[in-house]
Amino acid sequence: MNWRRLISPHALFWWGLLAVTWILSTTSFQLYKALDARWIIRFPKAWEMPMESWISDAMRWLLEDATFGLFTFREFTRFISAIIEVPYDVARAALADGFVQGQGSNAVEIAPPLSWIAIIVIMIVLGRVAKDWTLALLVGACFLYLAMFGQWDSAMVTLASVVIAVPIGVIGGLALGILSFRIPWVERALRPILDLMQTVPVFAYLVPILFLFGFGPVAALVATIIYAMPPMVRVSTVALQTVPAEVVEAGKMAGCTRRQMMWKVLVPSAAPTLMVGVNQVIMLTLNMVIIASMIGAGGLGFDVLSALRRLDIGGGIEAGLAIVVMAIALDRVSQAFSTRLPDEVMGRDLSYVQRHPWFTTVFVVVVLTYIAGLFAPAVQDYPEAATLTTSAFWEDAMRYVNVTFFDTFEAIKDVFLSYLLLPVKRFFTGIPWAWGIIAAGLAAAKVGGWRLGVMAALMTTFIAATGLWTKAMITIYLCGVSVFIAYAIGVPLGIWAGQNARANRWVGAFIDTLQTLPSFVYLIPVVMLFRVGDFSAMIAVVLYALAPAVRYAAHGIRAIEPQMIEAGLVSGCTRRQLLWRVKLPLAAPSLLLGLNQTIMLALSMLVITALVGTRDLGQEVYIALTKANTGQGIVAGLSVAFIAIIADRIVSAMARHSKERLGLA
Does the domain made of 406-430+466-662 have the CATH classification 1.10.3720.10? Predict the structure, then answer.
């Protein structure tokens, strides 16, 4: 049976496509030499589309000449900046800088920021309200860590950005989700836009935002809000669409108006799912705020970036750990709120004081710490003399590891480079652009139909016609190798966790930790241990993209109907046969969805690994950011997005076909 599958028409198509691609890849340079035809390996310069110039000119016109009659586009962007800047200044003053009057040397402090004690108490209360005292103590310990290890000021600057970006992202996402729910054509129109927003790399957001809004924390906040909003739009739409029909009918029978139906019935019923979207917004906001330090956000992200540039091992790890600690605290609190029932959160049957007894405590603590801080500086600011540092420890530890295991690390790196990375890189960079376009179209058409094939061919043509073919192939090679390794590690872990409750707890805790870490953090240990290069980028991408492979594999195994397992046992299957003949085929749709998400995360992380020396599309985006070249950044970002969209559509089509074969569609 297996041999018949290997020589079936379907299999022969893929074998043939791979064989032709391999032959052309290995002979393209020889063909170029023999025929004296440079166009074989490089898209003709005369045919290239000057997209960079067109986009740069359009952006320049937009900023300098575009007008809406009563106001110009520049005035519009400044208006948006002012709207965001006012609450941001208040949040930053309350958390980090204090309230002042005047500027520069004439500035006079009116009131100090919230005491470190008050903020820790506020976070403890949030943890207690969200769940229990265990969570409250965990959150309090996380924020106490920030104070004790000298990261408080930077952490509060980062928190101020999160406090402003999250509500705007949540409210904007919920509004668009409600609009999509009520008007079907809005959902259809938003879907490709959201796809593009979620596949464009994070650095690419920063380039046009930097051009339109300038350098500073407000520009960073605009980029953060745009990046973090799409998941909330999707979650809101799905949450409202999946409200049980009987709940809707009850609202109609009660005589609810359209507005009452939305805000008194649908939104409260969808609250638990909506809180999942809020959790996503919080984590994406924290991730983007760290990256947005490159355009003036400041805070912990700036500390990490500065440490990486100075090769300050201890400082980089300390700032990175502070990011991890803050991410864990915010993630756990938002997850706890997402699991609360609407009535528990809203407490409609209680008075305000009964619902929120802890807020009185918070108010008292804030007032008392403010008064005490006027006389005792240690109450207002954590005493510098009591600050701890692990910088020397981490530097000594990294030095010891590098000296002791240098040869081992180099041997591992050489093996991967010699037998995996470089051969795969030679294969992809050798593919002629013309055949690459044809092969992408044929593969997509075979899986998803001729429309998908045409779309894939057009998107691949765009990449070639903008002169980015070689860098796109390097991106695909790094993504492919990283996804292969992440999948090879993640699927067995997921299968193990799906079949063993104890393993599920340990693996789940490990994956939760990986998903909590902002992408920036993965670069620190990788750079310290392996320095810069493709191998370091691969390690960072594997760690970042591992989680969905594990989660979807475990979910797919656990979702198998017990009757199917019983049928396999009754037919005499061994444990190995039960896994390979029953469980894995039935879990195939979940495994493919996990592959899809692994690819998406890998591409997202690859752009960030431009900081460790990769020479792919991510480097193009990073160079554009440093030069404020809007056209270059958008073109490179679109190229990454097109690769992600092609991969997403192909893998999604494979998952759909798998469900149809199993009768699950």
Answer: yes
